Amino acid sequence: MTPIYPDLSGASVFVTGGGSGIGAALTEGFLRQGARVAFCQRRDGAAFCDRMAQETGNRPLFLPCDITHLAALRGALDQAAAAHGPITVLVNNAANDQRHKTLETDEAFFDWSIAINLKAYFFAAQAVIPAMQAAGGGAIINFSSISYMMGNAGYPVYTAANSAINGLTRSLAREFGPDRIRVNALAPGWVLTQKQKDLWVTPEGLAAHLARQCLPDALEPEDMVGGCLFLSSSASKAMTGQALVIDGGVVVTG
C-alpha cells in the first residue's frame, strides 16, 4: 500500500541504525523504492542484508559503526558515497532511550546519551551537506520522539536531546534552504519495536498509552515508513524545517 516515489529510485540513501527496529523498516522501505541504501549500526547486519536482498531484490550496504565515534561515522558515510554515489537522503534514526533518573545521572552517562541522540545527528548532517550542495539539493530527516512533548519522566537527557533535534532541524533548514536542502524532523509515538517489547512494554503500560491515542492500534515500525519516504522525496519539495508527528494521535501540534 506504500506509494511509489519515482525520484527515490536510484537515490543514494544513508540510514543510521538501519538494521533493526524502526531503522530496519526504513531501510526496507527505501529498498522497495529502488534506492541504493547504506546503513550503519554496531551489531552485525549481514543476515538482515541477506534477507532484504531475497525479499526486495535490492541489497543494502551494511557498514559497521558506532555513531558516537565521529571518525567512524564519517568513514561510513564516505564509504556509502563511494559505493552508491553522493548521499542525497540522510536519515538520522539511531537513538538510545535508556531509562535514567536525574539524581543518579553522572557526567559520563550524560555525554554518552547526547553523543548518540544529538551530536551524531549534527555531524552526520555536516558530513553530507557539501555533496548535497553540489548535487543541487537533498533531504535530511532527523528522527525525534513525542516523549519530550508529553513531559515524560524517566529519561531526561534523552528528552532534552529530542527537543534539541527540533532546534537543530529548524536551523539547518534555514541555513541550507538556499541550496535546496530540506531538513525535517519526524517524531514517532510509542513504536513497539522488539527492544521496547523486551525492556519496557507491559500490558498495563501499553493499555494506558493506547487510551491516550486517538487511534486504537499500537504503532509498529512499518508505520513510520510512509512519512519518512514522503519527507525524502520531491513530493514534499516545499516542506522544510517542520516536525512530522506519527503517534496515533497522542500529542497535538499547530
Automatic annotation (TrEMBL):
MF annotations from Gene Ontology: oxidoreductase activity
Annotated ranges, domain Ketoreductase: 11-190
UniProt cross-references to Pfam families, sorted A to Z: adh_short_C2
Protein name: 3-oxoacyl-ACP reductase
Chain segments annotated as transmembrane: none
Residues in the signal sequence: none
Keywords: Oxidoreductase
Entries under SMART domains matching the protein: PKS_KR
Organism name: Fuscovulum blasticum DSM 2131
Family the UniProt entry places it in: Belongs to the short-chain dehydrogenases/reductases (SDR) family.
